[in-house]
Every structure is written in C-alpha cells, then in structure tokens.
Amino acid sequence: MLELYEGALNVPEIITRWYAEEAEYNYGAYIPFIGTVREEDGIEGLSFDVYEPILNGWFETWQAKAESLGAKLKMAHSRGDVLVHESSYIAAVFSPKRRVALETIEKFVEDFKASAPIWKYDLRHGERLYARDRSTAISGAGILGAKR
Amino acid sequence: MVTVEFLGPIQKATLSLDAASLHDVAEALKEDNEMAQWLDNCAVAVNDMLVSTLDTPLKDGDKVSLLPPVCGG
Fold first, then answer.
1. Domains: count for chain A
2. Chain A: residue nearest B71 by CA?
3. Tens of pLDDT, residues B23-57
4. What are the chain B neighbours of A139 within 8 Å (beta carbons)?
5. Which of chain A's residues have a Cβ under 8 Å away from the Cβ of B30?
C-alpha cells in the first residue's frame, strides 16, 4: 500500500493504523522507518514533487519481491512542503520473522533513495531550491546526452 | 506527434514534436540550450515505463518523460 499526502505526515495515525491493519495476519515483525526533516544549514523545511505513475510501478515491483519472501511493504510520502521537525516519509515492512524484515527494510529504503521519482527542494527564505547536490541520477540515466 | 514532458525541477513546458524514436527526441533537445544541464543526468520513460536505449521506437500519441536526479524521503 502506497499513500501520498499533501504536507507533513500524521505519523502516530499512520503507524498505528498500519499496525491494526496487519494485526490478524500473524506477522512476527513490524519495522517502520520514519524520515523526519532535520534543521540543517538554516532551512525552514523541505518540499517534494512526486511523479505518481512511475512511483506506483516501482512500489508494485517491490511489493511483489516482498510477497515472495512472505513479507508486506507499506509506504507513505508527502507532496509539497514539510517543515523542520515534521516527517515526510514512512516505509514499513511486516514479515513472519525479523531477519527478512530487517534485510528488506534496508534494501527497500536504499533503493527508494536511488530510484523513486521524487524530487526534493530546500525551503529557504520562502524560496524552493532544488537539492541537486543531494540527488541521485536514476540507473540508466543520460541516454539523451550520449554522443551518436 | 509525441509529447515530451519535463518532471520535477526542470522548468520547461511540455513539448509536442514529430519523432520516430528517442534518437529524434535527443537531437531536438540537444538544440535547446536550457536542456544542456539535464540531458546527461535524466532518466527517460516512454508511456511511464523507464527505457534504456535511444533505439526505443515511438508512435503517434506516445508520452516521453524526462526524470532528473531524485531524492525522496
């Protein structure tokens, strides 16, 4: 399940609801990863653009991988502005045993950072500035610039 | 005609152009000075599927998307 929200996430509501949704499925492990905006270099917050069609496909591919291991993924992300000390991202894995959950959450979050079509901007003095130096080109990028 | 859309921080309106493959899209975009900073680092999707070669054929009505470097979370 992939959930997108305008602005900051309501973390207690989301992680409590996910816990309740899976309570009857006999999962022994539930690992949420919660990403919170840090005060750094004087930013007021972060802002996000999300391209949903490709994000959905990326998430479905991961969900199929998780299912093959007997696990289930959930993810929530913000669009628009999220201020310092608010949260913009939650990824969670449910699995029968801890080892699969621990390994899956790490791989999922790392691939999310490298591949999910989401763009981050710093909010500074009311301006929205693309965080270019913290961004990663998606695997296979650059074909349009290649010399013939 | 195909449409070319620019995602995230690329401040550019959607284009329509005649293109039989992504080679034609690449040639058109290389003539656009605004795009010079993006062509080497954008991923490309056709109809919302990422592609890995300029040989990807295009047909009338296809949507080409440029995805600049990402940073979710």
1. 1
2. A135
3. 999 999 999 999 999 999 999 999 999 999 999 99
4. 43
5. 144-145
ipTM of the complex, rounded to two decimals: 0.94
Q: Quick check: A137 and B22 CB within 8 A?
A: no
pTM recorded for the entire structure: 0.95
- DSSP states of chain A: -EEEEESS--HHHHHHHHHHHTTTTT-SEEEEEEEEPPP-TT--EEEEEE-HHHHHHHHHHHHHHHHHTT-EEEEEEEEEEEETTSEEEEEEEEESSHHHHHHHHHHHHHHHHHHS-EEEEEEETTEEEE-GGG-BPPTTTTGGGS--
pLDDT in tens, A64-91: 999 999 999 999 999 999 999 999 999 9
- The domain covering B2-67 belongs, at the CATH homologous superfamily level, to Beta-grasp domain (3.10.20.30)
